[in-house]
Specification:
The protein has five helices and 18 strands. A hairpin with a 2-residue loop joins β10 (about 125-135) and β11. It folds into two domains: about 20-120, Pnp Oxidase, Chain A; about 125-270, Thrombin, subunit H (Beta Barrel). It has helices spanning about 160-165, 220-255, 260-270, 305-310, 320-325; strands at about 1-5, 20-25, 35-40, 45-55, 60-70, 80-85, 90-100, 105-110, 115-120, 125-135, 140-150, 155-160, 180-185, 195-205, 210-215, 280-290, 295-300, 310-315. By secondary structure, the protein is an alpha+beta fold. The strands form three sheets. A six-stranded antiparallel β-barrel has the order 3-4-5-8-7-6. A six-stranded antiparallel barrel has the order 10-11-12-15-14-13. A four-stranded antiparallel sheet has the order 1-16-17-18. α2 (about 220-255) runs antiparallel to α3 (about 260-270).
Length: about 325
């Protein structure tokens, strides 16, 4: 039996960015393979730019070292403070270096963090996507792809070859503050959502050009289908993370490790589910048939008083005990 005392994160709609920190507990769905992290060794003049090579939820993260700015060595068992950006949101967490490898590639291993802090600087949450669009500017129309989107704007990618086709009338004339018309086909139909946007920033990467676009005068007729699309993407991401978690639990159950260690790792996985909790407080009980009682085997964030009071739970006592009667 698994219990968790959780405070759910409610979506807040505001016209101003919410820059107050949110403590997300074990929810680390924003950490993905290839994600770039800035890692600082606490109390040392060592800064490391890294990317995620591997993640074992609840146990460790493997970070490939891309570049370093250091006046001393990277020391094992050092405390680290990591920061990164994901979908326009700034995150940070604390951890510990548990392994260092120098050859054939240089990477470090850190403990999987129990808590992540989120600083939301945008008015609207963004989601990653691959959304083909048509962009109209200066009398020309050409293809592009939205790679993340929110109700307030998007990140638009256009390949360099398109701008060559249109010359001075194409996207090569784009600059910050340029106003463009974006035609979005969300439901794979011939009908487009049309929204005007202002280019706020431009970046070049190889043959691709990226534009940060702020939507202008979004009407309700556009806002509703956009909102529905964003929520659909969020549900898909959450379902994918749930399936990954179930797969990881099955893998743990087949490992040749002590039973309580299996339970502890499984609890870490469950408390890492997106949006589950702010505090990551929970426990796993095992039903003891001879006594007819629940026995707490592992826990996270439970106070000493609760550990004593809930070490053994009788049938019908509290919510955990009621679960015995209800089966």
């Amino acid at each position: 039996m698994i219990t968790a005392e959780n405070t759910f994160v409610n979506e807040v709609h505001t016209n101003q960015p919410d820059d107050s920190p949110k403590f997300l507990g074990g929810n680390m769905s924003c950490l993905k393979l290839g994600q770039t992290l800035q890692v600082n060794l606490v109390g040392m003049s060592v800064k490391i730019k890294t990317s995620i090579l591997d993640i074992d939820i609840g146990n460790f993260i493997v970070l490939k070292i891309i570049a370093t700015d250091r006046k001393g060595p990277i020391v094992n068992n050092s405390a680290v403070f990591a920061t990164f950006l994901f979908n326009g949101i700034f995150y940070s967490f604390r951890s510990m270096i548990t392994g260092i490898v120098e050859k054939p590639i240089e990477f470090i291993i850190i403990d999987y963090p129990e808590t992540i802090v989120e600083y939301t600087m945008r008015c609207h949450k963004r989601v990653e996507c691959i959304l083909p669009v048509k962009v109209i500017h200066g009398g020309s129309s050409f293809d592009g792809t939205i790679i993340n989107i929110s109700l307030g704007g998007c990140k638009l990618m256009i390949k360099e070859t398109h701008s060559m086709d249109f010359g001075v009338e194409g996207c090569s004339t784009f600059h910050t503050e340029s106003v463009i018309l974006i035609q979005i086909s969300i439901h794979h139909s011939n009908e487009y959502l049309q929204v005007h946007g202002m280019i706020k920033n431009i970046a070049q990467e190889k043959s691709d050009r990226y534009y940060g676009v702020q939507f202008i005068d979004v009407t309700d007729s556009i806002k509703q289908p956009l909102n529905n699309y964003i929520h659909t993407i969020e549900r898909i991401e959450q379902d994918h993370f749930f399936l990954y978690t179930l797969h990881s639990i099955l893998q743990i159950s087949m490992e040749n490790i002590p039973f309580e260690e299996q339970l502890d790792r499984i609890l870490s996985l469950i408390l890492s589910l997106p949006g589950l909790s702010l505090q990551s407080v929970g426990s796993i009980f095992i039903y003891d048939e001879p006594s007819g009682m629940l026995k707490m085997k592992v826990s996270r964030g439970v106070s000493n008083e609760e550990l004593l009071a809930c070490a053994s739970v009788q049938s019908g006592k509290c919510l955990c005990g009621l679960a015995i009667d209800l089966g």
